[in-house]
Amino acid sequence: MTSLRVFFIGGLTSYRALFNWLTPWILIPSFLIAPLFQILLFAYIGRTTRLESDQFYVIGNALQYAAIPCLFAMGNTISGERYQHTLPLVLATPAARLPLFVGRAVPVVVNGFLVAAFGLVVGGAILGVHVPLGAVAPLILVTAVTAFSCTGLGLVNAALALRVRENAVTSNVLFGLLLVFCGVNVPLSTLPSWMNTIAQGLPLTHGIEAGRRLAGGASLHDVLGLVGAELLIGCVYAVVGYTLLRVVETESRRRGSLEVA
Amino acid sequence: MRAVRLVGLGWVFQMKMLLRSTFDGFLGILWPLFFATTAFLMFRVNNDGRTLLYAALGASVMGIWSSTTVAASSALQRERWYGTLELVVGAPAHFSLFLIPITLAMSTVGIYSMAATLLWGRLLFGIGVHIVHPLLFALAVPATIVSIGLLGFLLSVTVVRYRTAWALGNALEYPVWLICGFLVPLSLFPGWVRPISWVLAPTWGVRAIRQAALGGSPLKDIGVCLALAVFYGLIGTLLVDTVLRSARSSATLSLT
Predict the structure, then answer these.
(1) pTM, two decimal places
(2) B234 Cβ partners below 8 Å, 6+ apart?
(3) Inside any domain, residue A150
(4) Rg value, chain A, Cα
(5) pLDDT for the residue numbered A15
(6) Which of B22, B23, B42 sits opposite A46 (nearest CB)?
(7) Which domain holds residue A41?
(8) ipTM entry
(9) How far is CA B16 from CA A142, A167, B13, B147, in A?
(10) Could you tell me if A33 and A91 are in contact, meaning their C-beta atoms sit under 8 angstroms apart?
(11) A62 part of contact set with chain B, CB < 8 Å
């Protein structure tokens, strides 16, 4: 029961306290304006290069933008606590670590999902992208799974925040790597093969591919393999992230470096 | 003379601070490279060396804007956090002479990003940068940096009442990349976008750099760039007085 309370109430409280992007003065420019302009930027570059259709860029960039809340919010669960000098208090509690850390990830998944969904709907409307009605429900599922897998990477980022002082830098670097490697704006087939290989192990790659196929008329059944791969990658990152958190937490306690990184 | 000395010394000190910051220094160089790489991957599909050079020159200016927009938006907020805002407001020098070197230093740091982007394009994508008018190129780059720095100055003053101005600065990164013709020709946009592009100095800066590199006549673009810089400086200076008067009279200078 206590673990459930830590998971749900603790996760939500932490999210509200640490992720101050919830204020409209940050939320609107960061989660509503920026993703739309990223979509427009690459859609227009795409029109200039005649590489792919607007739909390709809307789906790629909308889903990729879920990485902003997923990476930054998870990083903030550590760096935000450190900034407010509450990190040692949180880690000194006897609460089980699994609900403590994973509970903080749940609101982040929802946030990432909503940001991506906003980009898909409004970005699609601005550029006149039409998606078959039957693809809407599967697209919602794909968006949710993609937000989950990004949050798995976010857990790894949170573990890094126990070691790295400037977590905003690592979050931005991870975001940039996802932008370049995951076929967000360039078809995977045109990327060098080593980049393509790396992309197969990153969150977003399979989710974006599934989203594009659905928008192109495929059924959910056709993309189940891609959705499963995205889900599996998310789970692997979540497990790696959680394990890293435990290892680095123990190490930080031993070295007395929780507050200094 | 004292004003020039103040701006010069302020610029040197700010440069030293920025170059020691992981966020402003390291990430300032790395961040635009992600976008430049994506752009290069997109443009290289056409297999046209001149188009790739067009993209490389545009992408190289993206870093100058990136290093300015977020940092300039939160420049005054940062002074509040440092606890130095009251001291510089209370100093006898005009406040704009304190703020201008900060935003100029931010845009100057972008030159590292510019060089890194061109080098990145050369090494990884084989984009040769042959500059047709080296002297004019050497004139166009500082003109662009100064004009973007002064646009940052105007931005920092304009958003001073916006407590989380860094978020606004962040959100302004993509729109300027988009509508100033860094990677997309202005002719692709609806007509109503173009007047907005024309009042933004980066539009003329990137045009001047391209004209100098590819063999056009960049003098007019450099002139417009510098004229806009003067305009931003004047408007910003007038706004500084209004903002400071308001903050002093309502005793909100140190409020975050």
Answers:
(1) 0.92
(2) none
(3) yes
(4) 19
(5) 79
(6) B42
(7) 2-255
(8) 0.91
(9) 46, 22, 5, 21
(10) no
(11) no
